[in-house]
Structure formats: C-alpha cells, structure tokens
Design brief:
This protein is of the alpha+beta class and about 160 residues long. It contains three helices and six strands. It has one domain (about 1-145): Gamma-glutamyl cyclotransferase-like (Hypothetical upf0131 protein ytfp, Roll). A hairpin with a 5-residue loop joins strand 4 (about 80-90) and strand 5 (about 95-105). The longest helix is centred in the middle third of the chain and has 10 residues, at about 60-70.
C-alpha cells in the first residue's frame, strides 16, 4: 500500500471521486504547495501556500491507475503532464505527518488561476452559479445576528 494525497477531481463528491473508492481514506489533510485552476482540472506547484485535500492508502494497481489518470509516465517523465513526488502531508484531525505521493504539474502555469483558499472543492462552490446553503448553529441561528436587525420585539437585550 502507498499513501497518496489528492486535491482536485479525485476528492469526495468531485467528478472522479469513484476512482478512490477502493482506497482506504485516512483523513482530510494539507500540504505546502500552490493550487491552480487550469479549467477542466486543477494543478499544484511547489510553493509556500497551503493546499487542502484527502489522504488515502492505495494498493499498487490503484497507483498505476492514478499514474495513467495524471498522465505520469515513470519510464518517460519528459512525456508526463504530472510528476509523482514524495511529499510531507499533515492530517487535519490530529496534526500527524505522513509521507505520501502527490501529483505536481510538470509545466509552467501561464494561464491558470491561483486558488488562494487552497481548497478545490470550496473554490468550485464559490465560482459556481448555484445557490449555496448557509448552515448555522447555536446563537448564529438568530435572525438578529445574521441580518443585524434592530427593533425586533423578540430580540433579547
């Protein structure tokens, strides 16, 4: 088994999430890199930003499938779109560090958009035109606090 960090279309609920279904989900995680939107897919480059994703343990046959998806050719790196690199990954649940592979974009990014938040799922939600749900709990459920209403007769002093 090999630990793999995913950050884009392979994440849960994204278009290729089913690929990771046979892997063992270890948790949500982060790495030091810079995340870009290249249109149909994201890419990471080395850098000082934080990228959020998921950590999986996968068998060798799944690793070969991921290499194919990411156009990574071990025997011919010059032909590769992405390069698999060993990287330090931090699990968000307990802060533990893991050594895992991640797929870095091999070419210079000239027309991509940097995803400042470092979270591809969040970015996709923010740029979509669909309505977004607001989830609140505790005192945040108060309309007074949400809308800043004053003069509400049900408002507590």
């Amino acid at each position: 088994m090999t630990e793999v960090f995913v950050y884009g279309t392979l994440l849960k609920v994204m278009c290729r999430s089913e690929v990771m279904a046979t892997g063992v989900f270890l948790g949500n995680a982060s790495i030091r890199a810079i995340l870009y939107d290249l249109g149909p897919f994201p890419a990471i480059l080395e850098g000082d930003g934080t990228v959020y994703g998921e950590l999986y343990d996968v068998p060798p046959d799944k690793l070969r499938e991921l290499d194919w998806i990411e156009a990574y050719y071990q025997d011919d790196p010059a032909r590769s779109l992405y390069i698999s690199e060993e990287i330090s990954v931090t699990l968000l649940s307990d802060g533990s560090d893991h050594s895992a592979c991640a797929y870095f974009f091999k070419c210079a990014i000239e027309q991509g958009i940097r995803i400042e938040c470092g979270d591809y799922r969040r970015y996709q939600l923010e740029v979509s035109s669909e309505a977004q749900w607001y989830v609140a709990y505790g005192s945040n459920m108060s309309l007074d606090r949400r809308h800043g209403e004053s003069g509400n007769p049900h408002r507590r002093p």
